[in-house]
Structures are given as structure tokens and as C-alpha cells.
């Protein structure tokens, strides 16, 4: 691509983004004239948006009376359960789905991004109406070039800004957290609650009543009947500035390679620390289930929990770390009390706190994150994982070099099959069967393949 063509493409992209921004601003300004007739959102409709039909796992439904009562409800039963508590006081629902406890270690899918705004703590906004603050939030999002949210709820004192996404697996958690932090930063001027960014949060149900204010939880935006749902990739590309720049650069590079007659090939896969540790946590849970049917016997808990809690330091905010470590201990069948877990995992907590403060360590002349890090070979040695267990349990991170090479070979074969490349065994089988594609009889007759077929596939003996 020439520099002039690149400049034209860049100009066209900037103009398209400008038109989109103007369109969004116009939509938001039009919404300001409709504040007198907000759309109603029922509790059943609310959970249907968060957990659509066909979803798997369960959602946490909680009620706070004299004490906190919570249970996991299968997604297919959620609407019926919500119907029994419609209009009640202090009712909460999880935004994501889980396999067991409402903990990141049991997270099944992510279906929403969100930011909780405690604007009532801000003197400049404390006496504003929820609708006025909503419009100010929307303007801030436009100024930050962030796509419009799917909906905004007044929660009785603050606002909950939500972006619905098509369900993604827990493996996407690290990237989801980056989006969460960026959204919270963009709305910091409205007192975004950074303690409420983790995936295991519950928020108030639409139509319920907040006992602290006596206000009903209600929708403040949008006023139309439909709700936008994004694919997570699209939302992340739109929100994260680095991803936008990288995507544009990759698109230009692919175009340049195609123009030069080179195949674009498959994208390289680079694991961040967070994505690698999510894979480690998944492998630890698979190994525990495969080897001990879920319950760790005495003598094996310390090492497994230490590694699982280390993985969790890369997957949840510091404020949620202890809660998640307590859940991991219970998940593993440990009889430790919370105090015992705190004592045994104290170094894990300290290093996570240091990382949260932005501290670093010098190791062999390299500046590193203070959180623990382990090679896959070290984890294999600690837990005594055998090659047979690696294969039978379906491990992908806690594996030896031989299995890693084997998996890489299998991925390469799958990629070649997708491109239509015939492998060696299949090619030999075609030759033995006398396949025309393999034997190429037209070459012996000195003609092209198309001519050979047009003449009725003559043989070299005729």
C-alpha cells in the first residue's frame, strides 16, 4: 500500500468515526427530551437480558432481610423464581453464570460488562436526579469514544451502567477485566466503584426496592424498546485504544501482504500472564477432578491451593482475592477456616497487595511483577503430574515439552486442513486409488487439466 493510499484509508476511517460520534451525540441529545416518560423494565425482563434463553449454568439470586440469603438458580428456572419475588425489597442477581458457588473459580460464562456509579458521594452530583446524571454519563462515554451502554439502571442511590455481550467462556476473563478497568476509568468522574468490577458481583434487580433509600430500582436509559447486545470482540476493539491501533495496523499489514502476493497466515498466539494463569487454574481444576474426583486428600491440599490462589492473584481485583481463596479452599474439600486460609496464603496476599500498589522486584537484573510466577515444569514437578494424566485430563498449560510439541503439531495439522491442504497419508491413499488429482494424467498428454476434462478424460494409451 502506498503512503497516499494509506493516508486516504486513514482519512476515510477518521471521517467514518466522526460520523458515528456525531450520530451517537445526536441520539443522546434526542434522549434528553424524553425524560418525562422512562421505559419500564420488569425484574423478569431484566434477568432475561442478563441470562437469555438457552443459557447454561446458573445465576445467583439473593435476598437481604435480617441476613443474606443466596442460592444458585438454573438459568432455565430463573424467570419463574424471579416472578415469586417481583417488587420485593433488596433483591440481587448475578450478572454472569456459574457452575456452583458465585465465585470466579466456578465462573462458567461472562455475559455483561458493567460499572457501578456511587455518584451520591459526590457533592456536585448528590442532589441531581438520576435522569440528569444518566445524561451526563452518556455524554462522558461519547467524549471517551466508548459505545453506548445496553442500559442504565437507577439502583436506589446510584447508577449501574451495563453493556450486554454474547456469552464468552471464563478463558476470556483477563481481557474482560481490562475492559472493565477501562470503563471504570472513563467514568471515574461519576465515582465509579472499582471494588465492584469483578465477575462474581451481584447487583439489584429491576423493580425491586432499595431499603436504604426506599426507592425502586428502575431504568433510566434507553427509552426505546430494544437493547443493544455486543460481541465481546467488537466491544473490546471499540473500547481499548491499543486494540484499535493494533487492529488498524494488522489490517494494513494483511492488505500489504495480499497485495504482494503473500498469504496472510494464521495470527500468532501470545499469552499474557493473566491468560496463562487462567489456563493454569483451569488445568488445576481438571487435574483435581481427574485424579481425586474433586476432593483433595490430606497432604495434597497445600501445594494445590497455593498454586490455585497464585493463579487467582492474576484474575481478580485485590479486594476480591480473599473471598476467592476461601472459595477455592472449600472447592478443594479443605476443612481450613478462613483464618487458617489467610495464614497459609499470607505471602500470596502480600505479593498481590504489592502488585496492586505498583511495586516491582529486581530479579537477575530484570524488573518483574512481585506476584509469584512458576514455570509449567515446576508445577508439574510440585504436583507430580504424569504424561498420562496430562493427556487424560485434557491439560493445556501444565504439560511437559513433549506434549506441548504434540499439541502444536495437532494445531498445525488442523490449520492446514482448514486451508484445504491434503496431508501426506491422504495423498498417498489417493495415489494408490488412482486419483486423477494425484496421478495428473493430462501432463502425460501434454495438455492442461481443463482441456483434459473437456475432451472427456482421455487416457495416454488412446
What share of residues is helical? 40-55%
Uncertain residue ranges: 1-36, 263-270
* CATH topology group of the largest domain: Alpha-Beta Plaits
Q: How many β-strand stretches? A: 14
Mean pLDDT: 84
The assigned CATH architecture of the largest domain is 2-Layer Sandwich
Q: What distance lies between the first and last C-alpha atoms, to the nearest angstrom?
A: 52 Å
List its traits:
single chain, 462 residues, alpha+beta, Alpha-Beta Plaits, 6-stranded mixed sheet, 4-stranded antiparallel sheet, 19 helices, Arc_rbn_hlx_hlx
Question: How are the SSEs placed, and which strands pair?
Answer:
Blueprint: H1 3-31, H2 43-50, E1 58-64, E2 68-74, H3 78-83, E3 91-94, E4 97-98, E5 107-117, H4 130-143, E6 151-154, E7 159-169, H5 173-186, E8 202-204, E9 209-210, E10 215-216, E11 218-221, E12 229-230, H6 232-239, H7 241-259, H8 273-292, H9 301-313, H10 318-331, H11 338-344, H12 346-356, E13 361-363, E14 366-368, H13 376-383, H14 387-392, H15 401-418, H16 424-432, H17 436-439, H18 441-444, H19 449-454
Amino acid at each position: 500500500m502506498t503512503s497516499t493510499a494509506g493516508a486516504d484509508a486513514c482519512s476515510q476511517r477518521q471521517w467514518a468515526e466522526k460520523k458515528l460520534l456525531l450520530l451517537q451525540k445526536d441520539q443522546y441529545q434526542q434522549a434528553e427530551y424524553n425524560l418525562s416518560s422512562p421505559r419500564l423494565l420488569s425484574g423478569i425482563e431484566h434477568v432475561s437480558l442478563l441470562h437469555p434463553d438457552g443459557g447454561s449454568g446458573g445465576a445467583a439470586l439473593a435476598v437481604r432481610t435480617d441476613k443474606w440469603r443466596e442460592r444458585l438458580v438454573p438459568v432455565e428456572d430463573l424467570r419463574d423464581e424471579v416472578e415469586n419475588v417481583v417488587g420485593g425489597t433488596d433483591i440481587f442477581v448475578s450478572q454472569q453464570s456459574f457452575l456452583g458457588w458465585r465465585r470466579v473459580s466456578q465462573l462458567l460464562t461472562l455475559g455483561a460488562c458493567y460499572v457501578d456509579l456511587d455518584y451520591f458521594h459526590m457533592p456536585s452530583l448528590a442532589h441531581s436526579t438520576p435522569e440528569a446524571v444518566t445524561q451526563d454519563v452518556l455524554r462522558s462515554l461519547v467524549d471517551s469514544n466508548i459505545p453506548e451502554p445496553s442500559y442504565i439502571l437507577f439502583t436506589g442511590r446510584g447508577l449501574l451502567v451495563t453493556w450486554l455481550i454474547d456469552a464468552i467462556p471464563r478463558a476470556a476473563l483477563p481481557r474482560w477485566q481490562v475492559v472493565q478497568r477501562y470503563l471504570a476509568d472513563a467514568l471515574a468522574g461519576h465515582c465509579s466503584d472499582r471494588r465492584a468490577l469483578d465477575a462474581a458481583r451481584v447487583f439489584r434487580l429491576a423493580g425491586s426496592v432499595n431499603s436504604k433509600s426506599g426507592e425502586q430500582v428502575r431504568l433510566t436509559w434507553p427509552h426505546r424498546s430494544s437493547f443493544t447486545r455486543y460481541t465481546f470482540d467488537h466491544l473490546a476493539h471499540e473500547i481499548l485504544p491499543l486494540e484499535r491501533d493494533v487492529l488498524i495496523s494488522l489490517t494494513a499489514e494483511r492488505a500489504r501482504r495480499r497485495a504482494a502476493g503473500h498469504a496472510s497466515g494464521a495470527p500468532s498466539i501470545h499469552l499474557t500472564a493473566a491468560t496463562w494463569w487462567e489456563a493454569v487454574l483451569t488445568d488445576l481444576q481438571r487435574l483435581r477432578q481427574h485424579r481425586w474426583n474433586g476432593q483433595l486428600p490430606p497432604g495434597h491440599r497445600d501445594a494445590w491451593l497455593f498454586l490455585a490462589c497464585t493463579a487467582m492473584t492474576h484474575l481478580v481485583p485485590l479486594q476480591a482475592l480473599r473471598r476467592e481463596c476461601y472459595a477455592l479452599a472449600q472447592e478443594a474439600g479443605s476443612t481450613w477456616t478462613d483464618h487458617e486460609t489467610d495464614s497459609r496464603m499470607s505471602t500470596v496476599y502480600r505479593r498481590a497487595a504489592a502488585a496492586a500498589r505498583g511495586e516491582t522486584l529486581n530479579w537477575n537484573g530484570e524488573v518483574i511483577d512481585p506476584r509469584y510466577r512458576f514455570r509449567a515444569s515446576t508445577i508439574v514437578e510440585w504436583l507430580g503430574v504424569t504424561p498420562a494424566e496430562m493427556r487424560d485430563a485434557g491439560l493445556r498449560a501444565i504439560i511437559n515439552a513433549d506434549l506441548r510439541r504434540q499439541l502444536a503439531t495437532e494445531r498445525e495439522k488442523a490449520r492446514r486442513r482448514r486451508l484445504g491442504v491434503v496431508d501426506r497419508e491422504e495423498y498417498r491413499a489417493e495415489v494408490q486409488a488412482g486419483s486423477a488429482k494425484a496421478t495428473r494424467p493430462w501432463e502425460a498428454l501434454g495438455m492442461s487439466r481443463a482441456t483434459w476434462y473437456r475432451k472427456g478424460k482421455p487416457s495416454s494409451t488412446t
